[in-house]
Each structure stands twice: as structure tokens, then as C-alpha cells.
TrEMBL record:
Main enzyme class: transferase
One CC-aspect GO term: cytoplasm
Metabolic or biological pathway: Amino-acid biosynthesis; L-serine biosynthesis; L-serine from 3-phospho-D-glycerate: step 2/3
Keyword line: Amino-acid biosynthesis, Aminotransferase, Pyridoxal phosphate, Serine biosynthesis, Transferase
One Pfam family cited in the UniProt record for this chain: Aminotran_5
Cofactor dependence: pyridoxal 5'-phosphate
Catalysed reaction equations from the record: O-phospho-L-serine + 2-oxoglutarate = 3-phosphooxypyruvate + L-glutamate
Ranges for domain Aminotransferase class V: 8-229
EC numbers for this chain: 2.6.1.52
Protein name: phosphoserine transaminase
InterPro entries tied to this protein: Aminotrans_V_dom, Aminotrans_V_PyrdxlP_BS, Pser_aminoTfrase, PyrdxlP-dep_Trfase, PyrdxlP-dep_Trfase_major
Amino acid sequence: MSSTRPKVYNFGAGPSALPLSVLEKVQREFLNYENTGMSVMEISHRSKTFENLLNKTKHDFKTLLQVPDNYEILFMQGGGCTQFSAVIYNLLAAKRQQIPEEEEFNPPLDYFVTGSWSAKAADEAKRLYNNVNIVIDVKKSKGSFGSIPPKEEWKLSGSKAAFVYYCDNETINGVEFPFIPDIDPSVPLVCDMSSNILSRKFDVSKFGVIYAGAQKNIGPAGVTVVILQSICR
């Protein structure tokens, strides 16, 4: 089968364009992966072959982003939108473990609303929970999305919050954080990096949870990468 094809420049939001060399390697190994006599689509997910593939993928990803040893890499289904709710359930449970059982438990969830994706995340939080604090809502305060207000305008909950969420790059509205928000260090910082992960170096240790749908900036659709600090498990 010929590997030649017309040269097309793909500027779509997703799926992301893949290097030809990667596609050619997939093509070569699709029928016989690592000389197993089977396609990678056919091998058992319990096999040593798949275990090696998974471990190498995690190792390479951690190396690229210089992920500290106290973080886990998860490959999940459901896209970034599933993480809107998964983050809430899991981090509220983690926060519950830090508070004596006899104390009232209703910590705020802090959300930066800077574009369409963070607005969707905040709406899901409000659907699931009764104490959502909007740190900033740029559309409400400025009339439209398009900027990141200065810290003086933020309304953070401080150490009381179960977590602080933001979307690093709002593709629909053209807004990208040029910095990592400065928050209380005891509170997990949650970030949706679906559209710009692997595009630049950043300090992973400042985050509790990072998630990214692969289809925007990593590879084909169908998997969501979650980088999770062990303390948030």
C-alpha cells in the first residue's frame, strides 16, 4: 500500500494533524504489532505486550512534560467533558478525608470562567453541587470573553476551597492564560489543557489535576490524558 498522499494543511480544532512518519509506522505495525502476529487492535489488554505499550506511553509522556514522581498518568474515556464531573466527585471525596466527620462539610468549588469551555465546566459543577464560587466571569463583568482580569478582581475562597478550576486555553474565544494562577498552595489546582498541552513547558508540580482530550494537541480522538497528583487520589 502506498504511503503517498496529497499534502493537506489541517488547521481544524481537532482531530489534530499527525506526522506522516507516525502514520506510516502505524500502517506498518497495524497487521503485525511487535512481531506478535496480531494487530495492536487485537492484543489482550491483560497481555505483557499491552502492559509494555502502556508503561512506555506513560513513561514517554512523563518525560516530555517532566512530570514529578508523585504524579500518576491515567488514560481515560469520555473526553474532557467527563472530567468536568469526575474532578468534582473525586476531589470532594479527597477533601472530605481532610475534615473531621463531626464538622459540617460544604467546601466551595472555585471556577475561573474565561470562555465557553470553562463556562460549561462551571455549569456542570452547579448542576452537581450547591456551593460553586465563580472567581471571575469575564463575560458578565466585561460584556464578552476575551481577556484575563488582574488578580485584584479575583474572588478566591482561599484554603476553604476543595479545588480551583480553570481552562488554560479557550479555543472558541481565543483566550489563553499567559501564567499559572497564583492560589493557596494547600488547594488543588485543576486545569483543562486539552488544546495546548505539549505545546510549551510548564511546572506540573503546581497542579493537583491536569486533563486533556488527546484529539486537540496529542493524537487521534478517543482518549483523555489525566495527570493526577497522588494526594488527590
